[in-house]
Design brief:
mainly alpha
Length: about 150
Amino acid sequence: MKRTAAVSLGVIVLLAGTLRASLQDAKGEPNLEKRSKLALDNAEQALTEARAAYSRGDSAQVEARAMEIRESVELAETSLHQTGKNPRKSQGFKHAEIVTRDLLRRLDSFQQEMSAADRPILDGVKGAVQQAHDHLLLGVLGSKEK
C-alpha cells in the first residue's frame, strides 16, 4: 500500500512539473501559431488548477494561476499578431477568439462561485482576457482589405 502511494505521489509530482513547464515550452516554440495554441492550452489548464486550488482553500495558488492565465493569453495574442497574417484568413486567430471567449465564460462562472471577498482576485484577469478577446474578434470580423 505504501509503495503504491509513493509511486502515485511521484507520478503526480512529475505531471505537475510537466504542466508548469508548459508556459515556458510555449515561450520557446518558434512557430508563432503553435506558440499561441500552447499558451491558450496552458491558460485553460491554469484555470482548472485555480479552481482546484480554490476548493482546497489555497488562495496564493489561485492568484498565481490567475496571473498565469493572464500571461498565457497575452502571449497568445502577441504571438498571433507577430505572424503578420491577416486575421480574417487565419485559423489561428479564430481558434484564439473561440478559446478566449470560453475562458471568459469559465472565469465568470468561477468568479460567481467564489465568496464575495475573493472575487476581486479575478477582476484584472477577466479584464485582460476580455481585452485580448475583443482585439481578436475585431481582427477576425474586421473589414476586408482591398
